[in-house]
Design brief:
The protein is of the alpha+beta class. The protein has five domains: about 30 residues, no CATH class; about 90 residues, no CATH class; about 100 residues, no CATH class; about 80 residues, no CATH class; about 110 residues, no CATH class. The protein is built from 21 helices and 43 strands. It comes from Fopius arisanus.
């Protein structure tokens, strides 16, 4: 505020060198300001922001000033180990922090990095400076990528650390690994500056070889040498310029003046004709179903005073959703993950989606961000914390790779392709059903009421309806085939459906009956006592006898 970057009255942020202010929410999203309360930094970011104390090897929490080991920092979510990338010098590959700790490369108690093959130990600051701890955010400036050791001079290519792929300059720019607007070419004779893209077009830059031509000497240099010689220079371009484009036709028609991003309420968006209330959709918190914005306003489901931001189109595919506070307004009904796969839009092997309207190829993360895929239509299982995580949170926490859609098993640190994740149940959708035991383990069952909560239904706490076991089975939320019930009296094993038919399980009250000690017990206690078992148990009993 003192530096004049934040306007207290309007709540807008203006980056130094930028041409227009943006809402604080967008500044937070772009990484221009940091929410120290939410934390979840990568290891690279935490060290870079000087949270790491070299003498002690500990991290200082920005909110409490408490000193924590790396292990403790991960436990309190100051550092997110899933988005933290570390180099394994033995294999010359980049791996998640959790794997680096398990291999003894990173000591999460002492806060050190070890080159295992020679036994050299160093602090994490030195490890970052030497390129053993690298950033996971994208895009990177070319200078940053070189400093982090992601450039290979012998081949002229860059390493994408999240995918462990070598990419030439052209591929690195197209994939979003590198930002073309943060570097420029400087003519050694005239001192004139031109953009990197102009240099590629006129032959000064050879993207396949990763070389820059010095027209004064007619010699070509690798990118790292070109940076040293000043042929390639870094430009401190404000991040907010990335969003500066022509305003949309709707904004011009509405008479809203100015460039770039517009912040307005739902009510103002309707008055300016930025939203059509009959075609725009929101999710009804009472049912979890899509309804028109006009219907939502009529039944007071949404607050028309809620503010959101209309952003100019940056890529080839326009934004299909706008967030107004905790409400998302969709310009068209998004596809569920199941439907996207069924109709052939989403290819599970590659994790890429073809937009049905523009036919442009997108990553799954882009499709979710743009509002083409319903973010609530699939859940990732955080096996370690026994939580079900929605797609946006999974991308944010590094449980899902934004490029290929690979999914991380948080318990084993094993990475699965999107197809394998669905087959194994690590990623689940509404059509697949959740194993009965997992509904108990992942907190979907209320032992007091005996009811179940549908995690795919986005409803308010007041509107949330608890389903009986019977309802959950009928709707397909619970998959009964993976669970068997052991009779507390005689030890006989039957399927869940058989146990219901035999009155051993009450599907309405959500209780197990015929317990020898008590009249009935809740399902969590039944699981703890070994009365609810995985379906493999039936086969094991058969084989035993």
């Amino acid at each position: 505020c003192r530096a004049g970057m934040i306007d207290r009255r309007s709540g807008m942020f203006k980056e130094s060198g930028a041409n227009f202010p943006i809402p604080l929410s967008l500044a937070l999203q772009l990484g221009l300001i940091v929410d120290i309360e939410s934390t979840g930094f990568s290891l690279y970011e935490a060290v870079h922001m000087k949270m790491y104390d070299v003498p002690s090897g500990k991290f200082v929490h920005p909110s409490s000033n408490k000193r924590l080991t790396l292990s403790e920092s991960c436990q309190v979510e100051l550092i997110n180990p899933l988005i933290s990338i570390v180099k394994n010098t033995q294999t010359n590959r980049y791996i998640p922090l959790v794997e680096a700790v398990s291999l003894g490369i990173v000591d999460d108690i002492r806060g050190t990095y070890t080159i295992v093959e020679i036994g050299k130990v160093m602090d994490l600051k030195e490890a970052k400076e030497k390129g053993y701890i690298v950033p996971s955010h994208k895009p990177l400036s070319i200078e940053e990528a070189v400093k982090c050791g992601l450039y290979r001079g012998e081949s002229g290519k860059f390493v994408n650390p999240s995918a462990n792929e070598l990419q030439d300059l052209g591929q690195a720019l197209n994939s979003g690994l590198l930002d073309p607007d943060t570097a420029a070419l400087k003519d050694a004779t005239s001192g004139q500056i031109k953009s990197l893209q102009e240099g590629i077009a006129d032959g000064t830059v050879d993207p396949s070889k990763g070389q820059i031509l010095d027209r004064k000497t007619t010699r070509s240099y690798n990118i790292d040498i070109a940076l040293e010689r000043g042929l390639l220079v870094n430009i401190d371009k404000p991040v907010t310029r990335q969003t500066e484009r022509k305003t949309s036709v709707e904004l011009q028609k509405s008479g809203v003046s100015g460039k770039g991003i517009r912040e307005c309420s739902i009510d103002e968006a309707l008055r300016y004709e930025l939203l059509d209330p009959s075609t725009a959709l929101v999710k009804d918190p009472r049912s979890g179903k899509f309804i028109s914005l006009s219907e939502a306003l009529k039944h007071e489901v949404v607050d028309p005073s809620k503010k959101g931001s209309f952003e100019p189109q940056i890529g080839k595919v326009p934004q299909q959703s706008i967030r107004f506070g905790d409400v998302i307004v969709y310009l068209a009904e998004p596809l569920s993950l199941d439907i996207a796969v069924e109709k052939g839009h989403l290819i599970l092997e590659t994790g890429k989606l073809t937009d049905p309207k523009s036919k442009e190829e997108l990553t799954l993360k882009e499709a979710v961000t743009l509002g083409i895929i319903d973010p609530d239509s699939a859940l990732i299982k955080d096996v370690q914390k026994k939580k079900l995580v929605k797609l946006p949170e999974a991308f944010r926490k590094g449980m899902m790779d934004g490029e290929k859609g690979n999914v991380l098993d948080t318990e084993t640190s094993k990475l699965y392709t999107l197809k394998k994740a669905i087959e194994s149940g690590l990623l689940t959708t509404q059509k697949r059903g959740i194993p009965f035991i997992e509904t108990l383990q992942f907190g979907l069952y209320n032992s007091t009421t005996g009811g179940f909560n549908d995690p795919f239904m986005i409803t308010s706490v007041l509107d949330r309806k608890h389903l009986s076991l019977s309802d959950a089975l009928e709707s397909g939320l619970i998959d009964p085939s993976t669970t068997v019930i052991k009779d507390p009296v005689n030890g006989n094993i039957s399927s869940l459906l058989e146990a219901i038919n035999e009155d051993k399980v009450d599907p309405i009250a959500g209780r197990l009956l015929s317990d020898p000690d008590e009249k009935e017990i809740d399902f969590v206690k039944a699981l703890e006592r070994g009365y609810i078992l995985a379906a493999e148990a039936r086969q094991a009993v058969k084989e035993k006898y």
